[in-house]
Amino acid sequence: MQSLLDKIAAGQLWSFPGGIHPPTRKAALSKKGIDSLPLPDRLYLPLRQHIGVAGSCLVQKGDHVMKGQPLTQIDSSMSVPVHAPTSGLILAVQEHTSPHPSALPELSIVLEPDGLDEWRERSPLNPAEWTPTSLLERIQQAGIAGMGGAGFPTSLKSAVQQPVEFLIINGVECEPYISADDALMQEQAETIVQGIEILQHILAPKAVLIAIEDDKPRAIQAMQHATQGRDNWFLRAVPTKYPSGGEKQLIQLLTGQEVPNGRRPIDIGCMMFNVGTCFAIAQAVLDDIPLIARVVTCAGDTLQQPRNLWVPLGTPVSDLLHFCGFQPERKQRVIMGGPMMGFALPDLTAPVIKTSNCILAPSRSELPAAGEEMACIRCTACAEACPASLLPQQLLWFSKAKDSEKLDEYNLADCIECGACAYVCPSEIPLVQYYRVAKAEIREQQREALKAEQAKARFEARKVRLETEKLERQRRNEQLAAERAAKQSQSDDQAVTAALARAKAQQASPKLQAEPATGATPAKANQAASQDPRKAAIAAALARAKAKKQTDAAAKAVDSSDSNETAAPAEDPRKAAIAAAVARAKAKKQADTAANTAASDSNEQVETPAAVEDPRKAAIAAAVARAKAKKQAEAAADIAASDSNEQVETPAAVEDPRKAAIAAAVARAKAKKQAEAAADTAASDSNEQAETPAAAEDPRKAAIAAAVARAKAKKRKETDPQ
Amino acid sequence: MITTALLILGALALVFGAILGYAAIRFRVESDPLVEQIDDLLPQTQCGQCGYPGCRPYAEAIANGDDINKCPPGGEATVRKLADLMGVEAKPLHEEAQNAVKKVAFIREDECIGCTKCIQACPVDAIVGATRQMHTVIADECTGCDLCVEPCPVDCIDMIPLPETPERWKWDFNSIPVRMIEAD
Q1: B12 domain residue, yes or no
Q2: CATH number for position B117
Q3: Domain around A385
Q4: pLDDT digits (tens, 9 = 90+) for A657-707
Q5: Which residues on chain A place their C-beta less than 8 Å from a C-beta of chain B?
Q6: pTM for this structure?
Q7: Rounded to an integer, what distance in angstroms lies between the CA atom of residue A338 and that of residue A359?
């Protein structure tokens, strides 16, 4: 069986379904050469002139640029730079009407040519350095994007990994009026062939197929001449039929293979470039001329001199029309692109860009405006004309119903928007417009869906973040609380032990006799109050209670009625406090009087317990001391009895705890003063006595208590002489 | 005779029952839960305009029988899809929600005091900034939910309509502003 290459070599051509034969109207222009447009006053260069993303702007207002200087920088493989078409001054970087059916403003560089047309330094790529990488790099830096209409970055298209069987050069140019490629092939066949050779170098295809419609004999002749004697280069004159210049249609026409739904031509080993692209590649590589100008067909009956022109990119369409002798009619339409696939320009200040191949200014008789849209009569003429074998009448229904699922089912995505269906429609339904709207709607929906997905992901991520933050905070709080609790319990322990120590010390000292207790208690109360009022109060109460017990014992001897009165309220701590205060006062008085007599006696005692080291002996000594003290107290009681009785009555009557407390405090203060007065005589006596019982219980604690007692006694001594 | 028939039928019933039971476990089809399906249809702006704190809670509410027309950002298209999914009649959105234009938040940066309140309000973390530092909205991530406008103490957040770009433009052929070119 014959291989595909053999069939092609044998000159076989295939066919694609559908297609139409509109009047071509090219004859007038195809015989003329390409003229040059004089430099316009202003050039408007949109940053993005192709499919993909715009580069970042390199120039700013006031910069002077040379011809061919890059004005934007590429940031990704999906972008190509824009170059200055001539030398001049950058007037602004601002929004300007875009050459788009919406005419929405787009960021553009405004260049005022200086008329000198000065080139930047150029460095053609040495053929010795030709590697696919360096060539692709050069093609990208030259800003080349597909010039057939779509404007896909050429370098990205060429940088494929799959093997290329057929490199197809598209010189078909099937749309009516347009003859830009035709003229270019006639004039620049040699350069185009050089461009094809460069592509061949990059892609290494098995065969090169050049397709030209058979209504362009001069172009065919020129190209035939230029490609003579090359192996596996096939020049094909294809029958004139619209839209044989479509990529998928031309592949089918030349190789008989159909590009599968949703795939690219490279998937079946084909790669297609426009002749204009080939020319631009040759210029970029061989002469280092970036893509700064292109051939534009200016046609239409309202132009007095329709022609093909070399137009610097960025030239406003109005300048172009003016140069061709534009004589607009009423309600004149100006179309960018061909009459089949182009769009009416809402604003003539829109510039020519890399993909603009034709400016059409037809008269009304030449290209009548579309009539009233009528109902679809289901004649299926559109389905017969469709080159992609779609069902346009069905797609129309679904487009109107905005049923994107059905549109997808009926392969709207495969529609090449060639306009053949609308051309044949007897009801003059602008079918392609419906499809364009539907496609835009679907694109928007896809974008929305993508955005929704992103938003959802971000929302979820935020929720997770908030949750972890919350846990973190909780953990920290717990940690802090634990630390605080630990500190608290520690201080509690300390307070408890301190209170215990105090209580013990107190227990030890007042047990001996009433005299030292009077001095020690207020001091201790003060100390305790500074630490913790409650605990201090309890401790004080305890101390007071003890003091009272002692005084009770003392009072028994003096007056039984007196002791009864004091013992009764001892149950209640507060009352006890009052009683204690009273008792202290009594004790002090007793001490005062006793001191006079006891002074010499106690002095003797001082020596005795101090020498006693053994706790037992100390206990015995203490007992002896107590007994003596009692005797002294008994002796003193006679004098003190009447005095103390009065004092007992007064505080007992006080019911209110607060008042009682005040009274107690007052009593304490009095007691203190008395104690101070008594200290003169009793000081040395009480000091030593305090030491003795302390030692009896626990040597250590006793030592501390004794030290404290000594310190107090010292202070008293210091203050008293004054 | 009858016993034999009963035995045979009983045995058959047991065998088929076992086969069916096995198949039910072995070839179990994990069906997409309804809430997930509804959530996928919602626009995920997390704006709370439906009265629920986010899209998923609303999806759960719809699954439990709430109205399907409470999502203004989703528009008619979402209501239609939800109606299809839930098998209910598509209800129109509230009047003011029908002509909703897509918007994004914009912070007038020289007026921002850096209080971070809007950052905390943003459901999709689309606002960047720090305490006493200027904040700004990442327009591409903003869902236009409006939630940051209210907390701003200096009212420096505007909701501005998304500008139309050639990429987003929708060939609305009835409204092409065809400018007539007058004869010189």
Answers
A1: no
A2: 3.30.70.20
A3: 370-509
A4: 556 556 655 666 665 566 555 545 444 444 444 444 444 445 566 566 666
A5: 98, 100-104, 106, 327-334, 344, 346-348, 402, 430, 433, 436-437, 440-441, 444-445, 447-448, 451-456, 458-459, 461-462, 465
A6: 0.67
A7: 8
